[in-house]
Amino acid sequence: MKHDLLGLKELTAEQIKNILDTAAEMKKIVMADSKKTDMLKGRTVVNLFYENSTRTRMSFELAAKYMGANSANMTASGSSIQKGETLRDTGETLDAMGTDILVMRHHRSGAPHFLSQFVQASVVNAGDGMNEHPTQALLDMLTMLEYKKHIEGLKVAIVGDISHSRVVRSNIYGLTKLGAEVTVGGPKTLMPIDVDRLGVKSYDNVHEAILDADVVMGLRIQMERQHKGLFPSLGEYYRFFGIDSRRLKMAKPDAIVMHPGPVNRSVEMSTHVIDGEKSVITNQVTSGVAVRMAVMYMLTNGGF
Ligand code: CP
Predict the structure, then answer these.
(1) Ligand 1 within 6 A of 35 CB?
(2) Spatial distance between the Cα atoms of 112 and 65, rounded to a whole number of angstroms
């Protein structure tokens, strides 16, 4: 039986904890001088990306290399996808080449779930439309654990474009399953009307959203997913919702600042905050390699 990672909605708290425990061990390898292991020796990992990426694609590729796997990248541009090949045909073609793990980013929500039905390879969702980005939330939780030592009882404030964010959805599923209190903040036009049904509190005022938070996470304003003027300008967004040093004082004194990247400086956060002493954004990137190593190792060794 093959195993996939399609979303955190589908995982239990126990499974999420198992991944985080494994990722904590993997992080020691990422931090070591010599990163070469043979945990995935002989296995083949293909990164199939229909959308742009720096962090996710590179970290999956490096994670595969650190574990001794064969790895290859494929993007929509320059491939037969441009000639009209369907997702199913592309996936089945890569499957027929001996792919063991198919890491996939797609602009359509549910695309990895669809493809999983037709391939023998384990499918890892590397971001599907506005649905989920499970490995991002896992790396966020691993980073929180490093700084805060626990997830249960943490107050995590997530500010930005809640409607279009797959990162926030995966974080809400994961964090609430592990017992964190999640608040979301942003303009009403970027807030799903039924967000409270996900077990979070929502605010259209950044001060209230951040108040007493242990973790303050900014989200990227996703211009590519906005087809209507949902706020007047980036400058106005920053004026009302941007996280700057003054607003950050609303959080707990030892709060950490996170962002999944890529960050729009002086839109979601001030440069002072991004590069400040509370920022753990660079550590998130390192955690990303560890989480992806853990996920790929576990998928090929019985699942989570
Ligand atoms: N956080 C994230 O998914 O970044 P990339 O788009 O660079 O992969």
Answers:
(1) no
(2) 23
The whole-model pTM stands at: 0.96
Distance from Cα 104 to the centre of ligand 1, integer Å? 13
Rounded Cα gap, residues 40 and 294, in angstroms = 11
**Mind listing the pLDDT tens digit for each residue in 159-194?**
999 999 999 999 999 999 999 999 999 999 999 989
Structural contact between residues 94 and 74, judged by C-beta atoms closer than 8 angstroms: yes
Gap between the Cα atoms of 103 and 106, Å rounded? 10
The count of other CB atoms within 10 Å of the CB of residue 267 is 19
Residues 6+ positions from 112 with CB-CB distance below 8 Å: 4, 6, 104, 106, 123, 124, 125, 128
For 275, the token pair is 């590069």
- Return all residues near 53 (Cβ < 8 A) that are at least 6 apart: 105, 126, 127
